[in-house]
Amino acid sequence: MPPVPAHIAGITRPVDRLMTYYVLKAAMTLIAFPVTVLVLYFRYRTMRYQFSEEGLRMSWGILFRHEVVLNYGRIQDIHLRSNAVERALGLARIEIQTASGSSSSVMTLEGLTDHDKMRDFLYSRMRGASEAKHDSEAGLAGILHEVAQELRAVRMALEKRS
Amino acid sequence: MTAYFLRLLRVPPEPTAPDGSPESIRIFRAGRNYYRWRLVVWAMTRLVGFTGAFIGIGFMMGIRMPAWASALVLAAELFVVGGLILALPFSYMLQRLNYELRWYIVTDRSLRIRSGIWSVEEITMTFANIQDLRIRAGPLQGWLGLADLEVSSAGGGGGARPGGKHGGTGNSHAARFAGVDNAQEIRDLIVERLRRYRDAGLGDAPADIASAAAELLAEARALRGAVS
Fold first, then answer.
1. What is the DSSP string of B118-184?
2. Which residues of A touch B122 (CB under 8 A)?
3. Arithmetic mean of pLDDT, A46-71
4. What's the pLDDT score for residue A135?
5. Chain B residue whose CA is closest to A131
6. A133 to chain B: which residues are within 8 Å by CB?
7. Helix (H) and strand (E) counts for chain A?
8. Which of A101, B94, B100, B177 is the most buried (most CB within 10 A)?
């Protein structure tokens, strides 16, 4: 596995524009605006990302803390979604699915500067995105084959000596 | 006009194909009749909307109420009907755009599906994660020579069902080639590429390794036989 590129590993917080979107989103709830905007504000303030070699971690929440950790290899499919308001702000959501039972997404990455690059990075780490695994398995079969040939040679040598 | 509208909504241009060998990239589009099918569905939902509004108005007219209240009701009725009429040209235009801005990309390793105007969605799925393929067509779709090809990955909890808004997916574990006129061909292409994957040793029981290990075991036994 190549190391995580610096522009991905460096991401720990969502961009400021996400809060702008959250305010607009809360405004859509009309009467519930004060409550919704507070909830979304805390979500924005506490949202943290961490992209490591094997997987990613996302956490948010103060009263109700959430922390999701998942391996890149376990990603089933990636949805890149955006509505017109998000696009006007240059935002998009990346929804990640795993094979767990729930039909809603396991993790939703929000407020990333370059969501296309992030999606491509996640895709490149998905199972089946590269031929790496295939090579290692074919290689393993080859090694087993060679070990068998070595053993055969040992047996031949023994039989010749006796 | 359309170009301006798309710029205003910042609809991204044609999607890029996911990684895979460049010569294997195939881009499918919705069938020509898909637009017609969308128009029929659109017309039917509008009809239901207007019928509902008029039934409501008729119901309200039957009720006796003070003058100020009936003025208020009239204003509300005008608002609803006016809104429905004003929305007509826009939703009509969206049907056309939704048909045009739809891409189903298949490479040798994965597939990507892009759909939607107001809400844009791009699904990426590798073949290694595909669980099953399914083709379905309603009576009207069948008559128009259309079908939906659905590709599901693992998981998907209860209540997940295909067919959300904009022809996207209600089930988030499935990618939908909506309204294609060559569903069988795409299905065969994906199945063939999936098979190549299994042969390459990505399947659940890689035969190569198992047979190599069996050969090794046989050799080790023979060696012991020779020594003892």
1. SEEEEEEEEGGGEEEEEEE--HHHHHTT-EEEEEEES---TT--S--GGG--SSTTEEEEEEES-HH
2. 79-81, 119
3. 92
4. 57
5. B109
6. 202
7. 6, 6
8. B177
Report the alpha-carbon distance of residue A135 to residue A129 in Å, rounded. Answer: 13
Separation in Å, CA B70 to CA B51, B81, B83: 21, 16, 20
Ranking A64-68, A84-88, A130-134, B210-214 by mean pLDDT, the lowest is A130-134
Select the residue of A76, A81, A128 nearest B109 (Cβ to Cβ): A128
pTM metric for this prediction: 0.77
Q: Which amino acid is at B189?
A: L
User: How distant, in Å, are the alpha carbons of A10, A19, B190, B209, B210 from that of A130?
Assistant: 24, 36, 17, 20, 23
């040992």: which residue's tokens?
A154
The first and second tokens of residue B68, run together, are 């100020």
Shortest distance between the Cα of A81 and any Cα of chain B, in A, equals: 4
- Which chain B residues contact residue A141 at CB under 8 A? 201, 206, 208-209, 211-212
A46-69 average pLDDT score: 92
Among B121, B197, B222, select the one facing A79 at the smallest CB separation: B121
